[in-house]
Amino acid sequence: MDTIDAATVPEDTLRAIIWTCFGTAFVLVALRTAVRARTSLPTVDDYCIFFALTCLLSLCVLETIQLPSLYYIAGVLAGTAPIVGIIEETERYLLFQFPIVILYWSTLWSVKAAFLTLYWKIFRDLPVYRRVWYLLALFCLLAYGGCLVTLTVSCGGDVKNFFGFATCAKPEHVWASNFSVYFSTTIDVFTDLCIMAMPLRLIYNVKVTLRQKVGLVAVFGLGFVMIAFAIIRAKQVLVEKMFVNLTLLMIWSTLAASISVIVGTLPALKVLITVHSRNSANRSNQHSAGGSKLTGKQSISKSVRMGSISKEKKSMQGSLDAMESQEEILVQHDVVSFSLFLSKPFGLVDIG
Questions:
Q1: Which chain regions cross the lipid bilayer (predicted)?
Q2: Are 117 and 67 in contact (CB under 8 A)?
């Protein structure tokens, strides 16, 4: 990367990108909160999303304060700004960079915590999945701590070194910094994959329509979006030459953190699509029926056949009596519990 490429986006444009990202995340979190408030008080996953949004807000504020120093450094690297004052402006930039990285990881891990607390509602009655949940939750906690530790020790083990001019420029510091990026990105991607994989077996076995099953896979597969942005951000840091494109680094960091919060809100917002689809289907049935009671009964019968959890549970119970394998019995019990959870108001799919 050439030094002249150290800044590629105008300052006002970058500022607009930062606050557009936060504004979008804020609107969706507010909408999620309004939707959830219709049926219950805030739960643990809501508080995790609130904390993630708070971290994102703090991140955007610090980035905005950091912008003048960033563009001064970029100007010096490009040869368009005087070198006088480079030490002061660099130290001012570094003063905010360390907490910005902490806030970035805190935002991502708060969203992971939100998904895990959502999973707890699904798996709390399933012993095998509950044990896996405990292991994954503990691993995510340790992984978050590992990200903070590798960042802290990447500059000689003294946090004060992060705020000094050229105090982290030795080869061993560069190696440790790159290791921190590799470690944190790898562990971030791995935990996202684990979180997405947990409900796949239940989704495969749950008795819903193909369209509903695809919707479930889409909801639980949203982590791939976060993975993509995390990898792109890491590529902005791990450059072969000395100078990082500071503006692109800030853009992708803000986008990755904002997308993470947005993805965390989407499972709860699926109810809006469900309600809209249900209302549209009801209106369509009413028009096609032309007031016919028979058509109405047929529609109700179809709805019951497709989504009646009580009938599904009885059917599954009957099949349980005929099963010889204990493993099959456990699978069917898991599917029943999963179906019951999904059928609740503001669940992830509309069964019935």
A1: 16-35, 47-74, 94-120, 132-153, 181-202, 214-234, 246-269
A2: no
C-alpha atoms less than 13 angstroms from C-alpha of 309 in its C-beta half-sphere: 15
Mean pLDDT over 88-107 rounds to 91
Residue 293: CB atoms within 10 Å: 8
Q: What is the DSSP string of 2-14?
A: -GGGG--S-HHHH
CATH classification (class only), 8-275? mainly alpha
Model confidence pLDDT, tens digit, residues 291-313: 444 444 444 444 434 444 444 44
Cβ atoms of residues 124 and 130 within 8 Å: yes
Give the DSSP letter of residue 208.
-
Of 14-23, 181-190, 311-320, 341-350, the least confident: 341-350
In single-letter form, the type of residue at position 76 comes to: V
Closest CA to 9 of 67, 90, 88: 67
Q: Where are the chain's structural domains? A: 8-275
Residue with tokens 């408030």: 37
- What number is the average pLDDT over the span 265-271? 71
| Buried/exposed code over 152-170 (b: 16+ C-beta within 10 A; e: otherwise) | eebbeeeeeebbeeebbee
Kindly state the helix (H) or strand (E) to which residue 254 belongs, with its residue range. helix 246-289
d(CA 67, CA 78): 16
Instruction: Please state, in angstroms and rounded to a whole number, the distance separating the CA atoms of residues 141 and 197.
Output: 18
pTM: 0.73
Distance of CA 343 to the CA centre of its chain: 24
Task: Please give the backbone phi and psi of residue 313, each rounded to the nearest 5 degrees, phi first.
Answer: -65, -40
Token pair of 77, please? Answer: 């690297």
285 confidence band (pLDDT: 50, 70, 90) = low
